[in-house]
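Narrative of activities, Objective 1.

The group set out to show that a structural description can be obtained from nothing but a protein's sequence at a throughput compatible with the screening campaign. Below is one input-output pair from the validation batch, recorded exactly as produced.
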Amino acid sequence: MIKITQAPVLYQGGTFVPTEPRPAEARTGTMAYDILRAHNTLEGMDRLAIRFDAMASHDITYVGIIQTARASGLKEFPLPYVLTNCHNSLCAVGGTINEDDHVFGLSAAKKYGGEFVPAHQAVIHSYMRERYAAPGRMILGSDSHTRYGAYGTMAIGEGGPELARQLLCKTYDIAYPKVMAIYLTGAPRPGVGPQDVALALIGATFKEGVVKNAVMEFFGPGVASISMDYRSGIDVMTTETACLSSVWSTDLYTRAHLTALGRGEEYKAQAPAEGAYYDGVIEVDLSAVEPMIALPFHPSNAYTIRDFKANMTDLLHQVDVDAAEQLGVKNAAPLSNKIADGQFHVDQGVIAGCSGGIYQNLVRAAEILKGRPIGSDAFWLSCYPGSMPINLELTKKGYIASLMTAGASIRSCFCGPCFGAGDVPANGAFSIRHSTRNFPNREGSKPGDGQISYVALMDARSIAATARMGGVLTAADELPDVPADSPDESWTYDDSAYKARVYFGVGKAQPDTELVYGPNIADWPKQIPLPEDLLLTAAAAIYDPVTTTDELIPSGETSSYRSNPLRLSEFALSRKDPQYVPRAKAIQAEEQKRRSGQPTDALLGYDPKTTGLGSFVMALKPGDGSAREQAASCQRVLGGCANLCAEFATKRYRSNVVNWGMLPFQAADVKDWNIQPGDR
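Output recorded for this entry:
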């Protein structure tokens, strides 16, 4: 199904030929090379200083980005900047706080010349695909799933400071990345969807770091066998491999889709050149991919549904063990309780967001259900179209009615189920979701309070098949009448909802407009510069194999405080180490004494005039997951001055650490140091 070669190759005559490693200047012929060269402001290619064509942020991040840039002299957005409102859409989470952020965003779009998409109109990535992605472009987003490679665009998800730099006309600076060929052959079987292909790829690459910080370049005869929707469904999940970006070859289907979006003139052919150099190749036979399931608590914990069913007692026991070890929940009911008569019963299904809420996914779900009732027992199903144009077309074609007739709940264009702010299941419940992540707490549970539920990732087709069977876990290809996916599955694009509601202000800055502040929107506190010498104290030590950004700063209800750095910092590591905040504050208080000239016992034996005090977090591999910079900035607000790790899980988290003024220490053997909180 998947064959991996981790050695340099040349793409010649439709095959891959081994070759010697080359310097960046000679790694030519790839689509990525041409796009990066066109956006690089430096002469050479070994180091890149990139300016992007457009940017996008949602309402968890744009307030902080604009506030940061404003404090540094922002006068006008120098490039198209889209502000969407698909994360903090529920005002019930935090009262009026979320809507205050939206009002601020609209005022900022007017003042600085941006594009403002009101709540419930579109998921950020659906909107950018429909309105901005095109071959040869580069787009930067403050969401980790900023991926528009299916359109021939190289898109990168980064922390907010990188977007603030672009707003201040600075560049995105990186070394030339590895480029990995993802060579697709064959065609998917009926019942196999894009999430299945994505999970197979993630399972094969993440744990070994095969494509970490690389560009995944998709091409090959298999591309023509899948539609643009299908390609996007695979592409958006490449984030979970820990790659830097992705890009696909383009074809007549790309042109037809852009034409349907009213942007046909933006199409251009894009493919690897003869002799293109790749740092490795991953060959994927689409016809061999089976329906997949990614068990808690990571998308890489992936198995075929067939293998899961054959080994579910052992695999579910391992989830129980992981819940006890990683989350500290010792007395949860065993998941084996959900096995009855040899079948696994789930409690909830969700099809949502930038990966699940795609038109073709929801059409397949409606066709599989065919209006059959999902039943009145514990199982329930929710569907979230990714944008109003998608919702409108599904409604016109009768698919929404079919889903509703089956008993599915139809929700607005909202990302909540992806990060724990929507469709929160009951304690002990098991949810299957076509969304992006299944990290701990992504379903809204609070293990620190003894409450836990579980998310497994599956494709919309198998979720619908499971719903059709009343919650009994069922792979779509187990059904006798599962419909096939077609590569030319186009849909009529009607953007009248956008024309009626979106504020289109790009290039139309109104400097006299006043920014509108709600009571929870606060300026960044003044940051204390690093002193000449520094004595660091461990405020937390985490020995998990990987620490996600969700664990560094929880998602979900904390989203209400994204625009208030001091209040948000109170939640830092709250679900992983509840004593982190008081420890960090105690160290920070001693540093404040030192700076005011008061004596402090914490510096006995050191010169307080030149030696400062700061806290640090030790974690073996921190920063997997979201691009949210608050995972780092909250540490800085609390007096954090460093991270210490064996390696950083992602480039974007390390960048956040550096951009917020902390030192990114690495030591391969740090696990053997046995660091504990309080060690200095």
